[in-house]
Amino acid sequence: MRLSRNVVLLGTVSLLADISSDMVMPLLPAFVVTLGAGAAYIGVIEGAAEGTAALLKYLSGRWADRVRRLLPLAVIGYALAALARPFLAASQKPWHVLAVRNVDRVGKGIRTSPRDKLLAASAPRERLAEAYSFQRGMDHAGAAIGPFVAAGLLLVWPEQIRRVFLFAAIPGALAVFALLAVRETGRKTTPSETAGQAKGGVPKRLLAAIALFTLGNSTDALLLLRAQSIGVPTGRLPLLWASLHLVRALLSWPMGRIADRLGRQRALVAGWLWYALCYAGFAFARAPAHAWTLFAAYGLVAALTEGTERALVADAAAPETRGHALGVYNLVTGAGLLAASVLAGQVWEHVSPAAALLLGSALAFAASVLLILGSPPARQAPGA
User: Fold this and answer.
1) Would you say 243 and 300 are in contact if contact means Cβ atoms under 8 Å apart?
2) Rg value, the chain, Cα
3) 239-298 pLDDT, tens per residue?
4) C-alpha–C-alpha distance, residues 73 and 208, integer Å
5) What pLDDT, in 10s, does the model give residues 177-214?
6) Could you tell me the pTM of the whole model?
7) Rounded to 10 degrees, what is the CA torsion of 167, 169, 174, 177?
8) How far apart are CA 130 and CA 124, in angstroms?
9) Structural domains in the chain?
10) CA 63 to chain centre
């Protein structure tokens, strides 16, 4: 069976939006430095931005359960981010960048939970992991393409970072236009789809396991730092970053299909255990070849886990409460990622990089054990 029109369109929206975002993100730290700020202020910018997004993902999820149509919320979120990003070109002080990044993340916070609920309504229950994984794969494809587009523009206009910020508005606007083509049908869920659906929402043990894993899932920027420390030249780090997203883009959809057929919980546990192995590998890596191999292997983690987590959460909640469930999930993962990055950074700086990476590995293994030892579901749902 082919993916539904809405799933393909929402994947295309993610592709275009991430091309726009990742034309900007690799250049932002250097740009902030030119405005007179340093690494600490960059941390403040990203911490505030991600904290804002995490809170609004939860609030927009609750709101998504109260409105008749989800598409307007998603359109507002994507449009707000697309309109905000080009204003970076006019920034003259570090706080201007802080303000623009926060507006950008407000858009992300508003759109994410309604979009995820819309995705769940656009796919059969037995293909939820495939639908979410396709969207995540397109997201990663955009993350791989965006830096290359930015690099190409800088070849044409050397040092003209502000011009790249302006051009980032084009794929951002195209994402909004693609979203307007989505058809929100308001299809009613059939009895067979809701049979045995959990009345109490997402199992607390599942959320606890996700939170535990996320606490060890620090920013991937630390992996770039690790690669640089073991000999990967600075000039090749963008290629390493793009290769990671390329692997994720290529594997996400196939891994989502496998998760639906062989079991979503098994796929999630496999992804977390693979994460534990990869992080342990990064801890003991000693040569550039190790970094290239590990980055390619690490791409499989997102392919196994990102769509699968969302499918498990969406399937556990009744359709009328999915927005709230997805909002809680997004809040847990958003706050966890922020805490994980702070924790890993402290251990990295005050103990050692290997200790920080091994901590992430241990937490992923512990999350796998918690999920495996959890009470078996009372029903055998599609992909459970």
Assistant:
1) no
2) 20
3) 888 889 999 999 999 999 999 999 999 999 999 999 999 999 999 999 999 999 999 999
4) 29
5) 999 999 886 544 444 444 444 445 678 889 999 999 99
6) 0.83
7) -160
8) 10
9) 5-184+199-372 (1.20.1250.20)
10) 21
